[in-house]
Amino acid sequence: MFKPRWHKIAISSLFLAFSGPAISLDARQWHEDLDYLAQNLATRHANPWDRVHQRVFIEDVTALKGRIHELSDAEITIELMRLAASFRDGHTKLVPTGDSGFRHWFPLRFHQFRDGIYLTSIPADATHLRGMRVVRINGHDAQQVMQQVTALFGADNRFGRKSFAFLVSNADLLKGLRIIGPETRLELQLVDDEGNVTEWSTTRLHENTGMDFRFWGEYFGPAETDSISAYGGEALNFLTTRDPGRPLHLRNRNAYNWEWLEQDNTVYFQLNAMSEQSSQSDQSLFETWHEALAKSRSTPGGADRFILDLRYNFGGDGSLSHRLVSEFIRGYPRALEQGRVFVITGGATFSAGVMLAEEMLNHVPALLVGEPMGAPYNMYGDAEAFFLPNSGYQVDISRRYWQLSLSDDFNPFVPVQIPAELSGAEYFSGKDPAVEQVLAAPVPYPTLDVILEAHGSEAATRAYREQKDKWGALDYWQPVGRMDLEHVADRLIEQGRLDEAITAYRMNTWIFPDDWDTWDDLGQVCVEAEQHDCVREGYERALQLNPSNWNAGEQKEALKDIGPE
User: What is the reported pTM?
Assistant: First the structure.
């Protein structure tokens, strides 16, 4: 076993005098702010008690009232943030910004990858930190710190919560959580890919009253800090110049851009914000979209693939979605062919970005690649902002419920067909498993329903098992949609291929084992095929899962007719 080497580096140039938030309210003022926050959360939210129990919320408010006289201003602010975050809605949150807010930042940006926490923005004089994983923050386990900090912003799911890692750079917040002490020194323990450990510390602070930099990309540190991207150690303007030496997702992070991958006969379009006109582009979104679609028609039969990368799309104007998808269907010759269209998503895909993904998948047989989006299809949004009367803190509260899926779809995330969660090691080595998996696969991409119809039960079952071996441990993997298998089963029945239709319905029971109606479907097709063991398996399991289901009478009658085993 190798012996790790240790390095200690300290940066102690103090740019700002620091004494915590520039706010000093008395207990009466904090009580007024708390009452105002609680009242508005309870009365303005579209459905306040959907994800937090009213009794629990009232108890939390009452408990905080009894503790206000014991807490510092920073600690009270954190508790107010926690109250808003308890609604578990990514559009509902308290943002402690403004002149009296959490305005002191270390010149860093933290990011949560699959394999740990890394720095993606660093001071220009700390390039040795590039690609190193953060394991401890002021003596605390880095993952535990990350969990404490990211829990202070509302999130719809765990994937969206990861995008709040930027808050770990906030000195006021870290002090309020008692992660750093009164001397305001940030102490990091980092490890490189060979296990060598480095200790680095800083008291360098910058003052900035806003948090908008969280939307600019993981390589941006707090506004006005002297920072560079940890990827490549370059100034941030590298993101406006195309360099084929960088992975596609790091070549250009303007609101929209695209590239033609000639070797792969593929269009790659990155849409980072739902904005019709970017200040960084001479072309509008739709002019750029039309240009990419025209290229997709420039080869015989059309481009083999079209990749739409939404993994950094935090939202914007959701009304653009319908037009984008309509023009896509008209403009890409293979838009309606299976296995040709891929939509890359991630935890930062949010709000109007989710709406575009849903619109695309609702009209095009696209495949989701990457990791789940930061919100499900059924989500709260259209947040209204107001300000607390004394602290001036901004509070955003969702005023509308967007139902983009079935009314009984309570899944907190949208599963993906091709998982590809980026690791820090992959990020810093220039790899992009999402794009790489798409380009390495056969054309068109062989989905299970297509394999079943074209090559039969044995091939489809083998493909399913291979995918399950690779991704089965991930709770967000879903190899094929339930309706996709039902549709292919209907076609197989019409063709007289009952055994393969049974395989389609059986696959649905593998993928959705807790849904009684998948077992009911299996039982029904087995009745038609006169396969009694299969009928018994399907109907008995359906009745176990839901004894009073709407088809229970028919199930019981069929089981009675075929008798016991």
Answer: 0.92
